[in-house]
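Quick review question:
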């Protein structure tokens, strides 16, 4: 009886370790979960709690080998699966922040750079603003619940004791990475077009009225136009993030299913 209990406990402990290995990448690269505003100790507590909750789902019909080398290999596989899933979601916020960076360069906000509290990296005004707005929208639409449900789905597509085809998974992640620039351009398009029209207008004015100091007048005007169009386009950005979140989760699960 004691030997049976020992084997069961060992199997449950090994399964918990594998689940924790797949959950950990969320708190490294996934949006919101990887925020530097969350203390590392809190991240550890949340990761362990999620792993305890997901372990019964992941362990259904699974028997984890007790060999240390085999278990270490499965831990590496779990880290790769969790990393592939998390990267697909991180690209969503990367596109939003890249859109803000584009606007910063065109409007002139890039002259001022401060630490972004969410990422811990230097970024200008609009990049920080879009990062904060994206995180807020992510919370409002239940992005954290989408992420956790998607992660639980990975245990059905790639069981704890199985391994995906790494080449297929890497190819899927690379394909998603190629969409960052196009997505950022799609978000920032209204502001970029408005600023382009503003530049053209000031170019015409400078030819008609050469004595006008275009640089002195143009800079504050471009800032005002950028802020006005950004405010008007926020509903579009919210709808884009809401739609792309479901697409990103589906893409991540599709990559794992193919792999």
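Suggested answer, residue by residue:
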């Amino acid at each position: 009886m004691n030997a049976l209990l020992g084997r069961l406990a060992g199997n449950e402990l090994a399964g918990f370790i594998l689940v924790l290995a797949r959950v950990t990448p969320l708190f490294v690269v996934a949006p919101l979960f990887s925020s530097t505003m969350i203390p590392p100790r809190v991240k550890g507590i949340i990761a362990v709690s999620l792993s305890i909750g997901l372990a019964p789902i992941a362990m259904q019909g699974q028997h984890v080998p007790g060999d240390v080398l085999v278990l270490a290999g499965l831990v590496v596989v779990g880290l790769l699966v969790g990393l592939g899933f998390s990267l697909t979601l991180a690209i969503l916020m990367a596109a939003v922040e890249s859109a803000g960076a584009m606007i910063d360069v065109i409007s002139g906000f890039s002259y001022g750079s401060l630490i972004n509290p969410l990422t811990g990296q230097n970024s200008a005004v609009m990049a920080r603003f879009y990062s904060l707005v994206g995180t807020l929208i992510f919370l409002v639409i239940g992005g954290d619940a989408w992420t956790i449900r998607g992660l639980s789905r990975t245990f059905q597509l790639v069981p704890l004791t199985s391994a995906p085809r790494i080449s297929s998974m890497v190819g899927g992640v690379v394909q998603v990475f190629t969409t960052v620039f196009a997505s950022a351009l799609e978000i920032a398009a209204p502001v970029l077009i408005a600023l382009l029209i503003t530049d053209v207008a000031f170019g015409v004015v400078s030819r008609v009225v050469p004595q006008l100091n275009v640089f002195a007048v143009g800079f504050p005007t471009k800032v005002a136009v950028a802020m006005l169009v950004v405010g008007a386009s926020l509903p579009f950005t919210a709808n884009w993030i809401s739609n792309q979140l479901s697409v990103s989760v589906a893409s991540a699960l599709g990559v794992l299913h193919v792999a």
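Why it works: Residues 78-258 form one domain. Strands lie at 113-115, 122-124.
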